[in-house]
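Quick one:
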Amino acid sequence: MTVRHRGALAAMAAGVAALTVATLVACGSRPAEDVGADEAAALASPTPAPSVTTGDAASVPVTTGELPAGTKVVPPVRLEIPTIDVTATVNAVGINERTNEFEVPPSVDQIGWYRYGPGLETDAGSVVVAGHVDSATQGKGAFYRLRELDEGDTLTATGSDGEARRYRVVAREEYDKTRIPLDRYFARDGKPRLTLITCGGPFDAKVRKYRDNIVVTAVPA
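Output:
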């Protein structure tokens, strides 16, 4: 994956690609340090699956190959994170045809599930959900406090089948948007996990973007 492709995640995680605003509210303090990075890395397959990109500037890798035959994909429709007071609707989203970037829902109180990856029924791979940190016009987003999650915190993702599945946080990491290992976090292989992404770090007023991404990894509890 090229630096150009990695850099496009900036708009994805903040929702800037799907929501054009004049400026953004300050994100707040950064995490003191990453936690659980080694455990998060161990969940991934040692040999990343091959991936392709859509268009010339896709923001995230779209893994080649099909999901297992006969598998009914169960999209998440609701996410609850008591520790940070989140109860949010989750919408299935893909890549914006105009920008070739992950299309986070325009309402900052809603979250997007990456429908090109696994659903909640999966026994392998990363289920990715991304949300806004904030907006100048709408205020704090659903993932405004995502950076506060720590190892051992729990969350619940409810699927379209009505089943509520509990997860336990094992890692919280912060990356410069040009350095985030997208193939790891959008993989269909490795151990099953839930990956939550938003923006973080210092805000650049000139380009109206945050420098970093906050990535939280959780495993079935």
